[in-house]
Amino acid sequence: MSEFQNLLQEELKDPEFKKEWDDMQPEMDVIRAMIDARIEQNLTQKELAKRTGIDQADISKLENGTRNPSLKLLKRLAHGMGMQLKIEFVPMQTQLRK
Question: HTH cro/C1-type domain: from which residue to which, for each copy (predicted)?
Fold first, then answer.
């Protein structure tokens, strides 16, 4: 396990930290999905910007988490990569339902 993973596992034992970590996971999942889709297609941010008409600086802000995308913007990004946007609701883990 990496040093980061070891530190994260230790920090996740703190209920307050874990709550904050869990609360930000959906945003992190969206960011990871955007980056993975772009990289999978061997696109730079600049190339994606050209395809979508979205400023490269804005794509960078989306990818580093300093800007939250609207659904409309996510659809433009998906379309620019020849993909469709799919959002789904999935059941929570049993322990989180309480």
Answer: 34-90
Mean pLDDT of 66-79: 95
Q: Which amino acid is at 81?
A: M
Measured in whole angstroms, how far is the alpha carbon of residue 2 from the centre of its chain? 21
- Domain contains 38: yes
Model's pTM, two decimal places? 0.79
Q: Give which of 17, 24, 52, 18 is closest to 37, Cα–Cα.
A: 52
Q: Which domain holds residue 60?
A: 25-82
User: What is the count of structural domains for the chain?
Assistant: 1
**Among 22, 14, 2, 5, CA closest to 96:** 22
Residue 80: both structure tokens together: 């620019």
